[in-house]
Amino acid sequence: MNEMPNLEQASDMTASKISAKKVQVYYGATHAIIDVDIEIQPRSVTAFIGPSGCGKSTFLRTLNRMNDTIDICRVEGSIKIDGEDIYDAKVDPVQLRAKVGMVFQKPNPFPKSIYDNVAYGPRIHGMARNKSQLDDIVVSSLQKAGLWEEVKNRLDEPGTGMSGGQQQRLCIARAIAVSPEVILMDEPCSALDPIATAKVEELIDELRENYTIVIVTHSMQQAARVSQRTAFFHLGILVEEGSTEDIFTNPKDKRTQDYITGRFG
Amino acid sequence: MSLFWLVVIVLAIAFVGYVAGRARALASAGGDMRDLHSLPSYYGANVAMKAAVPAFLILVLWLLVQPFVIHSNISGMIPEGSVGEGSSLGLVMAEVRRAAEGLDNAVATGQMTDDFARNARADFNDITTRLKEAGQIVTSQITQPIMRAAQSYRIMVSTGNLYMTIVVLLAAIAGGLWGIRETNAEFRARNTVERGIRVILFSAALIAVLTTLGIVLSLVFNTVEFFRLYPAMDFFFGLTWSPSFSGRGGSSELGILPLLWGTFYISFVALAVAVPIGLFAAVYLSEYAGPKVRAVAKPLLEILAGIPTIVYGLFALLTVGPLLLSAFGDNGLGIMKAGTAVMTAGLVMGVMLIPFVSSLSDDIINAVPQAMRDGSYGLGATKSETVKLVILPAALPGIVGAILLAASRAIGETMIVVLGAGAAARLSLNPFEAMTTVTAKIVSQLTGDADFASPVALVAFALGMTLFVVTLGLNIVALYIVRKYREQYD
């Protein structure tokens, strides 16, 4: 967050934040992701859409090497963030994940207090020199996640006691607290009701100013609402990628058209 | 008729009922199975169930009740005066039972006619000698009231058994006939059998619970008996344990504190060994080990739990004790006098408890949702950070429960203590001294020629009761903790 936003609008002309080339993912013998090339723009929201099992979540998890925790998973090809290959032997996946945060499908706050949930990342990374700095990080993260007003009087209560929507925003605050550059969201609203979903979507739109966001979603309406760019996956292949408006109004590929018009998926 | 044959006959009736019920059902449907409400075997099972279950129920109840009825009848027959000085009705009744058994055996081996055994009134000296000659154990001269009581005891038992046989067989036959009578194509045998199975399963559960109750009651009665003979204050707060088997416990000092101290000291050493090792092993197995290592290591660790504790006791006596002695004994540091010590038993017991702690903790750690780990890894935490900050706190209640269960196991352990810790009841802080535990003392109080009327033997029940209360309390606390915090991460 120290670096100032260099350009106001993300466009195709700027250097991309994430650049994936010829990415293959195998689960044992299954070829789950085939030849995916994609450029993800900084300070924008990119949505991955596609039917279930199309590989969009799998691809998302390659971006912060979360697939490393699965034994049978193998990744080939190159994924560069800010020009640095994240699968290079020199890269520490633990450090990478501090830079590329993640929010999961189901809200998964730790069974700790709200404060400790947000302070978790800063503590393990030694980001605060003293208690008051840590307090500042926690407060500003909760503010950015739009949760501060709701929880400021009950920071000591367990994070698991909040509503689903609040829990998910707590998880976003937790991810923000380690100052990531990229935030990956794996169907962050699929376990939430419409009102909580609207709040999280609003939050995603605000976060776009400071972070590069990649969101996997089942809901095409959600992709249309929150994202600037959309990528459509089908059977492990990246079928089409472009500005959200183009994808939804003027898809080039027959499969994309069929999917967004609800003919399958 | 012996019990064995009675059971066999009831089973045979049930089997015949099964075949008959099945055949009758098929016949009532004109041989076409599809016209029956249920499969033919259900009709058979219904008949068999109705024949066997009530009959067995009556049998069990009869066997439980008959001794009580006979006992109360016979003890009414014994005149007050014949209960000697320093003796009790219980002892006289034991004498009666022995005499009756002696008569039974003498008749069975043909040394007495049944008639003689039933009606002999005259010469008790003669009967005593004849019983002794027949190789029966008769402790003293049989007196007239005892002989009378023994004779009616015999008669009551044999008539009781006869009636029991008749009633049980009648119940079996009546049940079978009832089952056969109601068998026809419309009868819902399947549903009836389902209900019957439910009842059978329920009674199995009931028996388990009632048995526990029975154990507790038997402990309670004997404990109360003990406290009538020995002051409770001296028992709970006495600092010395020195039972004297010679007198009637008059000179015995039966303070539980040295034994409780030994128990807790040894358990503490055992837990100090088992908890860290078991917990770390569980963390390794569930978080770090690959599937191959896990597939080998987990069963290997659990084999430890299958080793009989007497083998651990031998290990303590023959290996660990001498090993410790060579390090801390006279040739080493000089603080250990013999191989049997708190440390010896504690270390070995700790090894025994490792699989308990590790296996239970492993299950609990695995029950922590993967989402917790993902959340932590997603924030850039390493494995050990995730374990320390997320998984162990989330699993803590369960782990505490596992530790408490291991603790109650340690407190109840006997063989390792008997062989590894010595037999001296002692209040000492030195872990290299011999001490003993409550369980080991229960064994030594009850083995050998124990006279169950003296406090020296009855104290075993008070010890057992104390132990039972302590472990029960631990288990309740463990269950409470596990239950209270279980839903935390759901």
Could you walk me through the main structural features you see in this protein, from its secondary elements to its overall organization?
The complex is a heterodimer of chains A (265) and B (490). By secondary structure, chain A is of the alpha/beta class. Chain A has a domain at 18-108 and 182-260: P-loop containing nucleotide triphosphate hydrolases (Rossmann fold). Chain A is built from ten helices and ten strands. In chain A, strand 1 and strand 2 (30-40) form a beta hairpin. In chain A, helix 3 crosses helix 4, helix 4 packs across helix 6 (164-176) and helix 6 runs parallel beside helix 7. Chain B has 490 residues and is mostly helical. Chain B folds into two domains: 3-187, no CATH class; 253-489, MetI-like (MetI-like fold, Orthogonal Bundle), CATH 1.10.3720. Chain B is built from 17 helices and two strands. In chain B, helix 3 (89-108) packs across helix 6 (144-181). Chain A binds chain B through residues 64, 66, 69, 71, 94-99, 101-104, 106, 108-112, 120-121, 124-125, 158, 160, 171, 174-175, 178, and chain B through 290-291, 369, 371-382, 385, 389-390, 393-394, 488-489.
